[in-house]
Specification:
With 134 residues, the chain is an alpha+beta fold. It is 21% helix and 37% strand.
Length: 134
């Protein structure tokens, strides 16, 4: 299913030995924070998403096929990286995805980030205008 609109979006990535980051938006209002220590949010940054940026972001999410991603990606590895993606889209559809040391596009029990996951991170970086984020 194609995503034609996003009403609410939340993405979190963090974990043991890694900084924590969260990006949220509702409508065109976006906020994000980054923390290097113990998950305590750092300064919250805010911006308004332009229509052009939203169209580009939707296109990237559709290219990644996130509506077809599984609900959970888990590895037997302890500690490491956890991530969550929640999207309310097309008026009433909801997609919630969770990962622990595992990512979409991986056919093994590898804890390495996949091309698909890195492409999602890249799309979010572009949307928030922070090339070095995550």
């Amino acid at each position: 299913m194609r995503i034609s609109s996003i009403e609410r979006f939340r993405f979190f990535v963090g974990g043991y030995g890694r900084s924590n980051c969260e990006v949220n938006f509702q409508g065109s209002h976006l906020s994000y924070w980054y923390s290097e220590f113990c998950g305590y949010p750092g300064e919250t940054h805010e911006k308004v998403i332009s229509n052009m940026d939203m169209v580009s972001f939707l296109s990237k999410l559709n290219q990644l096929g996130i509506t077809r991603w599984k609900r959970k990606y888990e590895s037997c590895a302890l500690d490491g990286t956890q991530w969550e993606l929640e999207v309310l889209y097309n008026g009433a559809r909801k997609k919630k995805i969770y990962g622990s040391n595992a990512y979409p596009g991986s056919s093994t029990d590898s804890a390495e980030e996949t091309v698909e996951f890195r492409a999602l991170l890249d799309a979010i970086r572009l949307l928030i205008g922070e090339p070095g984020y995550f």
